[in-house]
Amino acid sequence: MNERTPGTVLLRGGTVYSPADPFATAMVVDGGTVAWIGSEGAADGFADSVDEVVRLDGALVTPAFTDAHVHTTATGLALTGLDLSAARDLDDALARVTAYAAAHPGHRVLLGHGWDASRWPESRTPTRAELDAATGGRPLYLTRADMHSAVVTTAMLDLVPGVEALPGHHPEGPLTRDAHHAVRRAAQDAIAPGQRRDAQHAALRHAASLGIGSLHECAGPQISGEDDLTALLRLAAEQPGPRVLAYWAEAAVPGADGVLDRVRDLGALGAAGDLFADGALGSHTACLHQPYADADHTGSAYLTAGQIAWHVGACTEAGLQAGFHAIGDAAITAVIAGVRAAAERLGIDRVRAARHRVEHAEMLDPDAIAAFADLGLVASVQPAFDATWGGTDGMYAARLGTERARTLNPYAAMLKAGVPLALGSDSPVTPLDPWGTVRAAAFHRTLQHRVSVRAAFTAHTRGGWRAVRRDDAGVLVPGAPADYAVWRAGELVVQAPDERVANWSTDPRSGTPGLPDLTPGEPLPRCVRTVVGGLTIFEGPNE
Questions:
Q1: CA separation (Å) from 541 to 136, 511, 526, 527?
Q2: Sheet containing 212-219: which strands, arranged edge to edge?
Q3: What is the Cα–Cα distance from 143 to 83, expressed in whole angstroms?
Q4: 219: which strand partners?
Q5: 81 vs 217, which has greater pLDDT?
Q6: What is the pLDDT of residues 94-126, one digit of tens each?
Q7: Segments in 347-407 forming alpha helices (H)
Q8: Rounded to whole angstroms, how far apart are CA atoms 359 and 282?
Q9: How far, in Å, CA of 16 to CA of 25, rounded?
């Protein structure tokens, strides 16, 4: 067997997380497929007929994670470049910009990400003059943590003639809307092919080291460009690594000819992902029914219900997935109205079968949750958003007020209603961190929105595959793809979000498989091997 031809492997002496056998300690993989799961005693019968025996020494084997919303190149650039997420204050951020500019004299455009002025004592963004001074007058594009606004230098604006006339341009403050999209395109165009490849490779390698076997790349003309997506898919096909499942965020609306042909030509699964119905709360661009608590407006709407209906109808008829980025309650209302209109024209069963997606889906009331369930909409959600910005003193409370903020990300109600959940990070908005994501869902800052660790884990493994219309993957059972990860973890438990929930499932006699204890403060599991399609794509150092 070589690195591109998987053989037969017996894993034994650990714990295999599988609905096929809750007490399994061994697994046989034949090529790219799970062949058998069972007990240690039965594993003896396979030991002499396989190409490799992996002794787990008590390790946990689980399905590999699927991150259902990633920007791979931007993630790699944050890993290898200027990341301001750890900046303590404005002065620290400017010092990091200065140091990065000095260390990269050959870059045509300096790229950075992750600032969040709401976390700084000054509570303000750097001015254009401050950035000009920090970079020595070079082009700089620096996105906010949510990627829906950016601060730039004067030299960066000079690369985009006419930007001053575009909606969202501000003489000194962050750029939003069309002005931001135009400057982002110019910044992306300035990335050299080698720099892009290095960033993509770094992101894929990092994902593999975290037990992530699949990424949903959310590309689009306002995000990263066709060359970026095709380069990423080519790289993923050339070498063992996480699977990359792509979406292209372009609207199939009247006058936009050839969109769905372009989606297919690019190798995307649908015209979905970050097809913006609105923006983000942090940038005051999420579209709300009522004004922000800290601003006298309701944000920005980028698509009408009519445009959404047209797009969903066209995608459904073409056999492709549609999908939208929608965070604010008004944007979600528009999405529901548009999908409902398409269902009335084409038939609700046909629309449900398409498994159209909504990314983020943060501000859902009970009526919206019921509509998602009725229309079969997949909610692609990011629990780390709540961990990062939730709570009574977080950014959500500042933007919306405490009462409205408390309603955000109602995962328990969504699962109870039957809304399919797929978990992700929106990296680099929040980092690739699958166990941390499961923890954030299970220990949501709002108690009534918490779900069990098991439910969150399923949404971050099998849920991601169901979101791409694959029901045979993301779970370790005979016949499933051999995408799995091996972990060093502590005690395995069955963890419910509320101690009032019946505890029968914690008894070994219940046959409920355990998962690592994700109580905040407990160490997260450490990945020692990641396998995709039977091929090892990451192996940690020997202990």
A1: 42, 33, 12, 10
A2: 65-70, 212-219, 243-248
A3: 10
A4: 248
A5: 217
A6: 999 999 999 989 888 888 888 888 889 988 899
A7: 348-354, 366-375, 383-389, 395-400, 402-405
A8: 16
A9: 5
pTM, 2 dp: 0.90
pLDDT on residue 505: 44
- The dihedral region occupied by 278, where left means phi > 0, alpha psi between -120 and 50, and beta the remainder, is beta
Gyration radius of the chain over CA positions: 23
Q: Which range among 299-313, 367-381, 508-522 shows the weakest confidence by mean pLDDT?
A: 508-522
In whole angstroms, give the CA distance from residue 249 to residue 295.
Answer: 29
Q: How far apart are CA 436 and CA 432, in angstroms?
A: 9
List the single range of 114-118, 347-351, 417-421 with lowest mean pLDDT.
114-118
* 409 and 383 Cβ atoms separated by less than 8 Å: yes
For 116-269, strand residue ranges (E) read 140-144, 150-152, 212-219, 243-248
The answer on pLDDT for 503 being more than 70 is no
How far is the C-alpha of 37 from the C-alpha of 34, rounded, in Å? Answer: 8
**Is residue 286 a contact partner of residue 317, using CB atoms and an 8 Å limit?**
no
Percentage of residues in the chain having pLDDT higher than 90: 78
Determine the Cα–Cα distance for residues 323 and 47; give it in Å rounded to an integer: 47
> Among residues 116, 118, 158, which one has the least CA distance to residue 137?
158
* Count of other CB atoms within 10 angstroms of residue 238: 8
125 versus 70: which is more confidently predicted?
A: 70
CA–CA separation, 218 vs 290, rounded Å?
29
